[in-house]
Write a sequence for this structure.
């Protein structure tokens, strides 16, 4: 099992979600987050005072998948989240030891 | 007006009808011709009706104006200021203005109205009308002969509410609620009451309508409201010191949407403030209404223009700040200037206040959090000065028919009188404010603890939050 954490542009979220649904991925956890990588923030001016806003709003999407689905999911995210500009975000993959469904205590891939 | 016209015609017809009678009876009694009692009664009745018709028209407008001026404080100013602070202080700043709506009203009934408008002293009123003694439906001919004195009283109260409320813009995000309440109560007695009496009260030193020593033209409160509050705001900002983290930590407005709504309400309410200051529903009120609108619009244009040239963008906050600056500057001038000079007053005020807020404040480094001084103090001062230049007798012959009023009439010494009025307002406001700050500092205290400032005044002073969006 692998966990995919994708940090993406908020404006791309809907198409990423649709792309994942299309390949049969139904579960996901979504968080609104703020951050920045290489992308510089922007400047706001209020009555002559300049403020640099460097933490920008992003969406973090988390999905845990059986190994055979991971590559297809990553491709789907890459295709649907890309605008080609700085600030498109990142995808992190990590191995997951165990998954447990709370309702019936099912374990392993069948709990996903 | 129509009713008055009809009534006047009736009087004329009756005079014509009575004329032959007078002529016939003249020889028998040349000193006091006897008019039939019926005609005399009818004439008296008509006179009463004409007076009642005017009173009812004027009173309707003045009651609406009073409500409009209250609307400037709440919700106008509370939203305008509320949006400009950080989210954690939104209730605290709104509560300060709202508390003044209640506090000043009570003080006004007890002594305030009498201290502003009682008697005919040079500097301050007296206590003859304390507890509103004798203030009822009968007009007070010293101030407004065609509306009930209770209307005049409640209208003037709304000015006394918004004036101290303006100061909270400078002390925002760091002053105690208890300190604010005590400060404002004292400020109303020590600064506002004398200034209002000097400029508008009978016998006042600066009263232009009733032969003051230095007749200062101040139609709706450029000196009384904006210079006093603006200068006091600067003194408060200097005395209190900067907010924790200012100017390094960013403190952008938490909701310009609130500020925008508030500024638009201020603009509309200002028609009651300025046009209502004619104290009647007459031509002067219309003239002041037009000047007010033109001044606001021109200043919004000039502030935006300056910003556009300097920063490459015209901002929403700039547009509304400009409009407020224009409204401030046109306040003393509203009932004295024609439409085109009103545009000039607004345009100049927009540029001047933009410079005060963006450059002047940065050079001196004081933390006037919401620019109460930069907009009200600066705009009020330059507006009072320009009133002396642009006032014209064709608009308002305040010194008597045919007597020049301002610089455009060739009466340039009026600019000197304006300077005296401005100087009195600056001195009274700064000295009075320092004394009051010392008193409050020594008793209930002025500034919240640093911890309270970091956590936000809403939670620490009022036990509430402005936005419980997840509840």
């Amino acid at each position: 099992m692998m966990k995919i954490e994708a940090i993406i542009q908020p404006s791309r979220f809907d198409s990423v979600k649709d792309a994942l649904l299309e390949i049969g991925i139904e579960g996901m956890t979504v968080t609104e987050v703020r951050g920045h990588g290489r992308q510089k923030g922007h400047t706001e001016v209020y009555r002559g005072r300049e403020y640099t806003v460097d933490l920008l709003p992003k969406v973090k999407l988390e999905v845990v998948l059986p190994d055979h689905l991971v590559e297809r999911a990553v491709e789907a995210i890459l295709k649907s989240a890309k605008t080609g500009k700085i600030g498109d975000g990142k995808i992190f993959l990590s191995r997951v030891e165990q998954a447990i469904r709370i309702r019936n205590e099912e374990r392993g891939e069948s709990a996903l | 007006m129509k009713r008055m016209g009809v009534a006047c015609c009736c009087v004329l017809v009756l005079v014509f009808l009575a004329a032959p009678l007078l002529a016939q009876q003249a020889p028998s009694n040349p000193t006091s011709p006897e008019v039939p009692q019926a005609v005399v009664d009818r004439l008296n009745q008509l006179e009463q009706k004409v007076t009642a018709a005017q009173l009812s028209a004027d009173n309707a407008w003045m009651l609406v104006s009073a409500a409009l001026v209250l609307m400037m404080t709440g919700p106008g100013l509370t939203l305008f200021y509320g949006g400009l602070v950080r989210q954690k202080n939104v209730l605290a700043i709104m509560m300060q203005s709202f508390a003044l709506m209640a506090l000043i009203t009570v003080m006004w009934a007890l002594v305030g109205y009498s201290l502003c408008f009682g008697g005919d002293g040079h500097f301050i009123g007296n206590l003859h009308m304390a507890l509103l003694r004798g203030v009822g439906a009968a007009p007070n001919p010293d101030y407004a002969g065609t509306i009930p004195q209770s209307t005049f009283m409640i209208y003037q109260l709304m000015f006394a509410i918004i004036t101290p409320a303006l100061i909270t813009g400078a002390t925002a995000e760091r002053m105690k609620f208890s300190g604010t309440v005590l400060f404002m109560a004292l400020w109303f007695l020590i600064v506002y009451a004398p200034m209002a009496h000097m400029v508008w009260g009978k016998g006042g030193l600066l009263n232009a309508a009733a032969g003051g020593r230095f007749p200062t033209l101040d139609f709706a409160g450029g000196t009384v409201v904006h210079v006093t509050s603006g200068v006091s705001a600067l003194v408060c900002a200097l005395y209190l010191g900067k907010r924790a983290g200012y100017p390094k930590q960013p403190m952008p407005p938490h909701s310009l949407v609130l500020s925008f709504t508030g500024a638009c309400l201020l603009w509309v309410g200002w028609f009651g403030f300025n046009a209502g200051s004619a104290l009647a529903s007459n031509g002067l009120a219309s003239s002041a209404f037009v000047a007010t609108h033109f001044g606001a619009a021109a200043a919004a244009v000039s502030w935006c223009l300056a910003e556009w040239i300097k920063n490459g963008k015209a901002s929403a906050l700039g547009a509304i700040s400009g409009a407020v600056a224009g409204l401030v500057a046109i306040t003393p001038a509203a009932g004295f200037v024609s439409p085109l000079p009103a545009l000039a007053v607004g345009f100049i005020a927009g540029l001047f206040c933009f410079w005060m807020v963006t450059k002047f404040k940065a050079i001196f480094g004081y933390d006037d959090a919401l620019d109460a001084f930069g907009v009200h103090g600066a705009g009020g001062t330059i507006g009072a000065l320009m009133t002396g230049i642009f006032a014209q007798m064709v608009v308002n012959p305040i010194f008597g028919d045919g007597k020049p009023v301002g610089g455009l009439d060739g009466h340039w010494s009026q600019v000197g009188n304006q300077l005296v009025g401005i100087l009195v307002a600056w001195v009274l406001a700064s000295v009075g404010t320092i004394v009051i700050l010392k008193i409050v500092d020594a008793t209930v205290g002025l500034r919240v603890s640093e911890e309270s400032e970091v956590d936000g005044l809403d939670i620490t002073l009022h036990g509430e939050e402005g936005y419980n969006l997840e509840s």
In short: Chain B has a mean pLDDT of 93. The two ends of chain B are 56 Å apart (CA to CA).
